[in-house]
Amino acid sequence: MPHPIMFSDDDPILARLRTVALALPEATEKVAHGRPTFRCGKMFAMYGGGEKGSKVRRDTALLFIPEASEREALVQDPRFFVPAYVGAYGWLGIDLALDADWDEVGELLDASFRQVAPKRAIKVLEAG
C-alpha cells in the first residue's frame, strides 16, 4: 500500500525549494513516503516530516544532512530540530514557513548535497 501524498504541488514554499534544490548538478526529485525528496544518487533533502519524539508534523520543513562540523551549532539554534526517522542518521530540519532565509537554505542544501553527491557532480558545482 503506497503512502498518502502529504504535500501540495501548488505550495509556494515547495516551489521555491524545488528551484534551489534542482539547480544543483544532477539533482532530481522523487516522491518517497508521501513527500518530495531531492537526490543526486542518494537523498540529500526532503520536504516535510515529523519532529523526533513528538507527534508534531512540520509539513513545510526542509530536512537535510548538515556538515558534521556545523551540526552541534545548528542543534543549539531553536530554529532547527531533529526529525523523526532520519534524525538518527545525523539529519536536521528547519521549518521554512517561519520566515526562512533563502540564502541560508541554499547553503544548507549545498552542504547536504556535498555529503552524498558523486565527485563528478561536486566538480560541476565548484566549476560554477
TrEMBL record:
The keyword S-adenosyl-L-methionine does not apply. One of its GO terms (molecular function) is transferase activity. InterPro entries: YjbR-like_sf, YjbR/MT2646/Rv2570-like. Keywords: Transferase. Pfam families: YjbR. This is Phosphoribosylglycinamide formyltransferase. It comes from Gordonia phthalatica.
